[in-house]
Design goal:
The complex is a heterodimer of chains A (617) and B (766). With 617 residues, chain A is of the alpha/beta class. Chain A is built from 25 helices and 18 strands. Chain B has 766 residues and is of the alpha/beta class. The chains are: A alpha/beta (617), B alpha/beta (766). Chains A and B meet through α17, α18 and α19 of A and α2 of B.
Chain lengths: 617, 766
Amino acid sequence: MPTYRTHLLVCAGTGCVSCGAFTVKEALEKEVARRGLQNEVLVIATGCNGFCERGPILMVHPDGIFYQRLTVADVPFLVEEHLLKGRPVRKFMYVPPAAVAPVPKMADIEFFKHQRLIVLRNRGRIDPEKIEEYIAYDGYEAAANALANMTPEAIVAEISAAGLRGRGGAGFPTGRKWDLCRRQPSAPKYLICNGDEGDPGAFMDRSVLEADPHAVLEGMIIGAKAIGAARGFIYIRDEYPLAVSRIGIALEQAREMGLLGKDILGTGFDFDLEIVRGAGAFVSGEETALIASIEGQRAYPRQRPPYPAQHGLWGQPTVINNVETWANVASIIRRGSAWFSSLGTETSKGTKIFSLVGKINNTGLVEVPMGIRLRDIVFAIGGGIPKGREFKAVQIGGPSGGCIPKELLDLPIDYESLTQAGAMMGSGGMIVMDEDTCMVDIALYFLRFTQEESCGKCSPCRIGTRQMAEILARITAGEGTLEDIKKLETLALTVKQGSLCGLGQTAPNPVLSTLRYFRNEYLAHIVDRTCPARVCKNLITYFIDPEKCVGCLLCLKSCPVNAISGERKKVHVIDQAACIKCGACFNVCPAKIQAVTKYTGERGRALRGGAAVPKDA
Amino acid sequence: MKLRIDGLAVTVEGRPTLLEAARANGVFIPSLCDHPGLDPYAACRLCLVEVKGRKGLVPACSTTAEEDMDVITSTPELQALRRGILELILAEHPHACLICSEKPSCDDFKSTIRKTGEVTGCVLCPANGRCELQRVVEAMGLALVPFPSHRRPGEVRRDDPFIDRDNSLCILCGRCVRVCQEVRGASVLTFVSRGSGTVIGTALDRRLLDSGCQFCGACVDVCPTGSLTERAVRYERPVETETKVVCPLCGQGCGLLVKSREGRVLGAAPDPEGPVNRGQACVRGRFLVKAAVHHPRRLLQPMIRDNGSLRKASWEETLEAAAARLAGYRPGEIAVEASADSSCEDLLVLHRFASETLKARSVSGPWSESAAARLSEAAWGAGWTIPLNSRLSDIGRAGTILLLGENLPLTQPLVNLEVVRALRKGARVISVGPADGHYSPSGAVDLGIPAGKDDLLLSALTASLLESPGTPATRTRGFGEFKTSFGKFDNAKARRALGISKERLLEIARLLTGVKPLMILFGTDFLKAGSCPEGPTSLVNLALLAGGRLVPLDGGANLRGALAIASVFAARFPGAAGRSGASAGPAPRALYIAGPSAKVRPGEAELVIFQGSYTDEQAEAADFLLPETTAFEAAGTTVNVEGRIQVSGAAIGPLGAARPGWSILSLLATKLGASGFRYHSVEEVRADLARTALAFKALGPVGGEPGEAFLEDDAGGAEAFVVAGTDRISKPARGPVVSRDPDIYKSLNLAREHKSLKLVRGRSCR
């Protein structure tokens, strides 16, 4: 194998790919060849690096230099400067917000500094389509050890001792699940990897499958030995074509190497995996619905108990775990339960991946030790809120989670604290919201999502979420009554207690948590018919301040319904009757002018009625 | 098992669910999606209860009772939760009547105006009064729904035979979908779309007719609301009486509840307590009873041919005239044709009348060619009385089923349900003939044998079984001789003709000797198909080799009963020699044709007396037409395919001047001067039957309600292989291949003209 002095690691996660990472990679390869460096410099496409905000990303190994937001046009200069002349290019480096000097090395960037990588340990450093690179970083060592030297009991004991809990949402102890399944007398048994990640804004499973598919495979091989399964399934939603293709490649390579199939590594143990592609229903992520889906049935959840570990796929004992859970297994077996359980809190061990999205500077994927404070994630790693806005809340756990307000920023992130605070770990989606977010509107958004994704089987979820969404819609339209809050609370309880599966049981969480922490906003919508965040269309009015307007025609031209009249250098006026409140004028009005303003409440209504300009807008 | 429900110590048997345990002990828990006979579903969430020591609430319908469980079914919190859920359900279901101030007086004074197109409340609903949702709402005392209501879009679907579908009344309990899949194995109805847009429908929103529906009506029967209704009774006035009747429309003997009002049949539904069918039926029993009784071609008045044309006459005149004509024939000149649909009582009197009064040469009927008759004949050849009785429920417990030539969903729907049940439990079903492909994919093995080679297949399977080691039957009488006789059989040649590989054949043979019990199902059609002249003999041998049980499946409401009675009288007819009832010699001069669905063939004899329930052009060629009641108007005893003796009641009185068959025959015999026919009631005939035919011993004393009664069916002699001429076995049969009649509802005689059934009939049906 030839050796190269430098490796160029181009991030090929979905985020970077959509920003053009593959064209950058191609350009790099061409440029390297043009400069005659093809025997010295190797260009590699890796899995998601995590810092999606800054894509396309290039890491130069072994220098540790981190380049970001590269374009094809940047490539020749970069290759010449860095690879030929040995001068790292400062202008492509990352500059933290509110700083002037760039941070050249990845390890020094705040975003990466606070992370602790177990599941994502191979991210950005191996080519996920080459099993050799995975093996080079101790890959399949744990599986070999488990198959050759460990009894099923010992494996289960190790996982139990590590304190690993399900990363899919509910946090059920993995060891206990395996043990329950292992003890079932019935055969055959099955393994399932749940890769039906459906939460809006969550992409950690996708990233793991894309960046390190073999970690999942290895975890499943160990799991198969632990419970005595010969057949397993990896269920991936079809919206993840890259993940499907990389897992497919990984399966083939593992089979070729004798790591899957008959008589694995000569230990006499047989195990093989199949990919099942999900057809896009959110509820398929629920384990019993997912099992029904693999069976070819409609993805309807069913009542538990019996649990899948007792009565799962085709009625047989089945262990079903989330992608991230499986990806933890090999590290635990390789480095020991003591090492794993030294990370995290009393009840929540190890690390957790969060996808950091919304109104935050460093959008991306972060893996942090359990127990880290929310503040550290949002501000230290996430870099705070853009445009100097005020932090308001973070929705944790996807549509079934809850909103955590700024008063609880010092909350340690673990299963119990989150549940207590009215949110949940969920799959680990974190949607950050700033002061411009209306909490009633957010509750409505999430409820509409669960309502649309409800499978329709049980009545509380099917009808209850719909009624709740309608009440919320009334409130955001300024037509709510105080009675509605009571109704919402009663309905939330009915849906929570009455629903069949986790989807319904958690669907009211966004409403309950916003009612808990942001009740004032509800009251403002109902009593004052005001949207404090100025989001709810029915409750806001756009107005052009005649004293500030310079008559630049920008807003006039951007209005999709021609509701703005005026001439160059003359004050523009919005026809309130025609305005559809799309906000286009507000967005285009230059920041130094700021003539277009949003009003809500009494003042807004007065403006709509044609009243005079308020002095203290 | 002991547990506590609401503090009350109760004892339960078996492994009931909490809901069943509570109901058995008089504790009411509301529920809508649960249904006996279906797997627990836990979707309506009304039956949520508390179990001490368990987290959260559990649905009573899907939680199995456990020793020492402490269950709380009613607390203020649970009541509030149930109310909340019920309010939500009603938000999706028309409930205008709930909030109407006129409701109390409306129930009392308003006559139905249900012919309105759209249902907005109970009064306008076809299910008013028999709606389970209505009952739950009343039990929980709900009078107001605090939510805006949502009507599901879409009109009532009326483009299918028999069934109207109105999604706006649906509460998505899923019972119809589940019964269609779990019990009927049809999977025609399904959930479409998701979330609050979910509706019940079919794949690609086709009509039921185009989706493989059997029109068994099970979905209608389980629907708790008026969402799925039988069109014919949708706007009928309330039912007055419900009578338990044994369905006479095929040989399985389902229990039906026939609904009537003022001497008119309104419809029928399967009897949940029916010992054969346990709440299931098929298109015939479910939807065609009314059509069969009140048919435009019903014969309701005696008729005499006078100067070449028929005229109505009184019973007295008709019987006098018929007796006068019959008296003019000598013994042996009259032949009697009977039907396998007549009750045992009618058949007994008919046989007595034919042998004692008419001195007829024979009583012929379809039983002589039946699967049961040919099977016992074949076994007789080896001196063995093969048992013919079976239990349909045994088929459901089978480990392996060999299904020969029957399209079960159409010909034997109840047997089909048992096959579906067996499949669900993991049985393998090997099917040959028209059932190919019905039971795919899990557990079903379709052989795909070319038509007309059934006999060869049986021989090839037999040869493969003989080759495979460990055949259990080596000690059975006649084995050695049989094996020798089979020595010449060229299996390789047979396989080539069948287009089947050696491995495949051995695999099938392995399956046959694999998971027990093995049930071999075959019907008349398989034997009649022309390709299987040695069918019964081959079947007996195959069953012995594989250690399976033969289940003959015949049509005809009372075929086994007819067979039993005919065998008692067989010796009394001069012309009864030979297998088929029709004897050699000159054609009979006079013909007496009897039976509710009897048919006349023209120009057969100089005198034709027709006693039946329906007329057609052929029947109108007869000289005398004697109107007989249908089985719904007269009590009678029938024996189904299992050999089960069942006594049926009469749902309504005789229509027009129709009389029960036994009564007509008794009167005619008396007119002919016979003295032994003074029956006054059907019970007297039944008592005579138990005396005359030993097989009916189980009928018990007169007046006593027979419990589970079966024909006497003691196996006689030891099991033995039947050795036929070796040359006959080794030669593939070359008999004429009779095409199988696609009209499997032909036994239904007249209801077959029902315009809806015409649509259903002849369709490929799963």
